[in-house]
Amino acid sequence: MSHLYRSAIHAKVAKLPAMPPPQIGSVEEEDEENEAADGLGSLPSSLGSGSRSGSTSVRRQHHQHPPNPAYSPVSASSYFEHAIQVSVPPSNLDVRVYYTAPKTGDGAVMVCHHGAGYSGLSFACLAREVGLLSRGECGVLAIDCRGHGKTTRISDDDDNGAEIETEDLAIGILTDDLVNLISTVYPDPNSAPSLLLVGHSLGGSVSVRACPLLQERKYRITGVGVLDVVEEFTLEALPMMHSLLDARPDGFNSPEEAVEWHVMTHAIRNVESARVSIPGIIIPNPDPSSGPAYLWRTPLRLTAPYWSSWFTGLSSKFLLTRTARLLVLAGAERLDKELMIGQMQGKFQLVVLANVGHMVHEDDPGRLAEVLVEFWRRNERVVIGVKKVGEL
């Protein structure tokens, strides 16, 4: 839920800043094509078979101004090698996957699951940094989960994605979706690369729950990394979410305006990352005469029935995960009691990043990549008899 989560934790319920006035700026390079027309190519055949290449109420009108080219969309082709829809029949989904393969036969793959309302493209800049730091030894597989991004139901003909009004976003369903996707992409656990599960906010909860299910299927899990979510404080913040959602714009008049709003309100502090990720979380308004030209792809208010279940039990499940554990937080947030005891017992690695917001992977992808690659290297090549981080 982006910066809304962190704002709620700090009880800052005041309305978000209004759309900033147009700024004069230019970009040094010609604008790249929108990700919607990316053409990143197909996933290798060894990664499973690829298949087929809601609206919100409008409460406020936006003053239009010319799109600022400094916030124009940027293609994902500079960050991932491949993009494709992967057919996952057990989940009745065609899942959008962004993938960069490891360059060595014994390499690992970082499987990245985004938070509510976002998409796999929120990991674009991180994926590039991981590839550079690991020298290609660690690949990245980022997904659009059910009801988000370009993931659609197999039975749907709607190119704009699954209908969030009828989509089941229960935590168990989302967990099964991730497990089913990995089983489709890597059908043979014995020949599959080792996997490092990384999830942001909701994605962290899904990754933690998916880990034991994948281990039951004999996949090698190097570790689980959870990005900026703590159960107790998240649950305490949920009652404030509707007030914060009321303060958001209903939509935008251009993709540039959407990017600009996220940057100027510090929802995302990295302009480059916002230019890649934000165009994918809005869709054209089917009736532009009724309001802004672009609406949110995933109306977060309609996911409210699932909020509590997404995070309840997260701390205990994280601490019981039988692999290396990493928790990355933005700022010096307090741990809840269960995590505090677990940290004192050495059950997981805790890293606090400075000068970032809730979107830690977008705000400072370089620093987070250093943390993740170091975590992966330390736990991937553990000497026999030496325990991984968090193992007792």
UniProtKB/TrEMBL annotation:
<dbReference type="InterPro" id="IPR016812">
    <property type="entry name" value="PPase_methylesterase_euk"/>
</dbReference>
<feature type="compositionally biased region" description="Low complexity">
    <location>
        <begin position="37"/>
        <end position="57"/>
    </location>
</feature>
<dbReference type="InterPro" id="IPR000073">
    <property type="entry name" value="AB_hydrolase_1"/>
</dbReference>
<dbReference type="InterPro" id="IPR029058">
    <property type="entry name" value="AB_hydrolase_fold"/>
</dbReference>
<dbReference type="Pfam" id="PF12697">
    <property type="entry name" value="Abhydrolase_6"/>
</dbReference>
<comment type="similarity">
    <text>Belongs to the AB hydrolase superfamily.</text>
</comment>
<protein>
    <recommendedName>
        <fullName>Protein phosphatase methylesterase 1</fullName>
        <ecNumber>3.1.1.-</ecNumber>
    </recommendedName>
</protein>
<feature type="region of interest" description="Disordered">
    <location>
        <begin position="16"/>
        <end position="74"/>
    </location>
</feature>
<keyword id="KW-0378">Hydrolase</keyword>
<keyword id="KW-0719">Serine esterase</keyword>
<comment type="function">
    <text>Demethylates proteins that have been reversibly carboxymethylated.</text>
</comment>
<feature type="compositionally biased region" description="Acidic residues">
    <location>
        <begin position="27"/>
        <end position="36"/>
    </location>
</feature>
<feature type="domain" description="AB hydrolase-1">
    <location>
        <begin position="111"/>
        <end position="370"/>
    </location>
</feature>
